[in-house]
Amino acid sequence: MRSETTRREVLEGAAKAGVLAGIAGGMGACSSSSAVGADGKRGGGRAVQFAYALNTGTIRGQKLSLVDEIKVTAKAGYGGIEPWLGKLNDHKKSGGSLKDVKKLCSDLGVKVVSGIAFANWIVDEDARRTKALEQAKREMDMLKQIGGTHIAAPPAGATRGKVLDLDAVGERYFALLEAGREVGVIPQLEVWGFSKNLHLLRQTMYACVASGHPDACVLPDVYHLFKGGSYEGKYDAAGLKLLGRKAIHCFHLNDYPDKPSRVEMNDSHRVWPGDGVAPIKRIVKDLASNGTGCWMSLELFNRDYWKMDALKAAKLGLAKSKAAVEKYLG
User: Fold this and answer.
1) At 213, is the secondary structure helix, strand, or coil?
2) pTM of the entire structure?
3) Are strands 186-190 and 150-153 parallel, antiparallel or unpaired?
């Protein structure tokens, strides 16, 4: 079993496989005025450039169809969208065509930068994990059909109970990444702050390295880094400085208030970027120091925002996102 491998051997193997390319690729990039951002454009004098996407959970409460979510995203001015796989399933079940969805995104100039799914790929039970990998393949295939390139891979199924061995998590993530290669979609290992497993950025980074897979990458989230404790003590989130462009494709952007406490806070307390107390300045500067111009995907579950008109909420979210991020660039 690879779980018997020493940490040094894992790191050496990962380096050979290219896992650390995202780290090495970030070194020195901040000194260049022509760093390439997530939208593929040159920085125009800036060290790094971010692009903006809408995670459709932000307008989930408005109960729009998948097609309407895409139209709202485009009309609001986002360059990318991060749909939930449940909506893709609903669209198919109602007789909709994924091919038509891909064309709509292309016509409106919206890139499918990621997707949200919850396959239990991480669990200990072999039978459950095998079934989950098949589920993940189906979901990645659907995402691929609408032009998607990446998908979230949170520790769904392991948020409670025992703490899993991180080397074992790395092995399971490797299997998920291989399944993704078969389809042409890259699973991003997501930090979940409320989870028993992968609630810290350093745990997620270790599992990526332990996977030994060249496609390994992380999906951080402003709220989850707080909820899991990554901002406490020595500021675990400083690990963002070590992650280059290849190591982060999407970053879930949001903010949170000063109350309630970290323990009491939940997803519904998320607020617009810049309206809370999150260390967005430090996050942006840490990413920019490596030239990590990733997609900033707005993800909120605020019930007050769900009462707003979907287009107004999406437009406000984009304005807040740009204001919160771009004032720290330059």
Assistant:
1) coil
2) 0.88
3) parallel
Show the tokens assigned to 62: 């408005």
3-state secondary structure of 23: helix
Write the DSSP string, 77-113: T-SEEE-BHHHHHHHHHTT--HHHHHHHHHHHT-EE-
50-326, superfamily in CATH?
Answer: Divalent-metal-dependent TIM barrel enzymes (3.20.20.150)
CA 288 – CA 269 distance, rounded (Å): 27
Cα-atom radius of gyration of the chain, to the nearest Å? 19
pLDDT tens digits, one per residue of 187-236: 999 999 999 999 999 999 999 999 999 999 999 999 999 999 998 755 56
80 DSSP β-pair partners: 53, 111
Quick check: 175 and 139 in contact, CB under 8 A?
no
Distances in Å between the Cα of 279 and the Cα atoms of 167, 189, 220, 275 are 30, 22, 14, 11
Peptide bond into 273 cis (omega under 30): no
